[in-house]
Design a protein that fits this description.
By secondary structure, the chain is an all-alpha fold. The chain has one domain. Helix content is 74%, strand content 0%. The chain contains 9 helices and no strands. The protein is globular.
Length: 220
C-alpha cells in the first residue's frame, strides 16, 4: 500500500494549495517562462526518445514487451513524475489571481493517478497516450511560452491545440482493442478500462470547452 501513497499525497497537495498567495508579477513571469521552457524541452525529449524505442523494437502489442527495455521504463517513469510537476500550471494561475476551470483540475489529478498505475503495474499500453501526449505538450507549451513572450505567430495555433488534444484522447481508446486479454493481463486490461472511463469524461470536457470557446468566437 505504501507504493500507492504518492498519488494520494499528490492529490491532497494539489487540492490543498493556498490559493490566496500572490507574488510580484515580474517574478511570476520569470517562473512561467522557465516552467514552460522546461516542459517544452522535456516533452520533446520524451516524444523523440519514445519514437526511437518504437523504431528500434517495432510496434508490438504484448505484455511488458516494451517495459522489459530499461530505456522505455526510464522514459515512462520520468514522464509519470512529470504529471506531478505539471501541477505548477494550476499554481501559476492562482499566483496570477486567476482560478483554474474544472477541466484543468480533473485533467491533472486523473492523469497523475492513472499514469501511476500504468507505470507500477507495467501496462505496455501506456506508450500510446505517452507518445501522443508528449507530442501535443511540446506544441502546447510552445504556445504558452510564445504567448508569454508576445510572439504573434503563436496565436494562430491556439484553436488547433485543443483539436489535437481531442484527437489524442480519441486515439487512447485504441488501447482497449490492442491490449485486450490474452495480449496483456486481465489486471492491466482493467487498468486500461479505468483509464478510458476517465478519458471519456475528459473528452466530453474538452469538446465542451472547444464548443464554448471557439464555435462562439466563429459565430461572432
Amino acid at each position: 500500500m505504501l507504493l500507492h501513497l504518492l498519488p494520494v499525497i499528490g492529490t491532497i497537495s494539489y487540492l490543498s494549495y493556498p490559493t490566496y498567495i500572490k507574488i510580484n508579477p515580474n517574478v511570476l513571469f520569470f517562473i512561467s517562462v522557465l516552467h514552460n521552457s522546461f516542459l517544452i524541452a522535456f516533452s520533446a525529449w520524451t516524444f523523440i526518445s519514445l519514437s526511437r524505442v518504437l523504431l528500434d523494437k517495432g510496434i508490438v502489442f504484448g505484455s511488458k514487451y516494451y517495459f522489459n527495455d530499461p530505456q522505455f521504463d526510464k522514459i515512462i517513469y520520468y514522464f509519470y513524475l512529470s504529471k506531478y510537476y505539471e501541477y505548477i500550471d494550476t499554481f501559476i494561475l492562482y499566483l496570477s489571481g486567476k482560478k483554474p476551470i474544472f477541466l484543468q483540475k480533473y485533467h491533472h489529478i486523473g492523469t497523475a493517478i492513472l499514469w501511476h498505475f500504468a507505470y507500477y503495474y507495467k501496462g505496455d499500453a501506456i506508450w500510446i497516450p505517452s507518445l501522443y501526449n508528449s507530442f501535443v505538450h511540446t506544441i502546447m507549451y510552445s504556445y504558452y511560452l510564445g504567448s508569454l513572450l508576445k510572439i504573434q505567430a503563436f496565436k494562430r495555433i491556439k484553436t488547433y491545440i485543443t483539436g489535437m488534444q481531442i484527437v489524442q484522447l480519441v486515439t487512447q481508446f485504441s488501447t482497449l482493442y490492442f491490449y485486450r486479454p490474452p495480449v496483456d493481463t486481465v489486471f492491466n486490461y482493467n487498468i486500461a478500462i479505468l483509464s478510458n472511463i476517465f478519458t471519456a469524461g475528459l473528452l466530453m470536457l474538452f469538446c465542451d470547452f472547444y464548443y464554448r470557446n471557439y464555435n462562439k468566437i466563429k459565430n461572432k
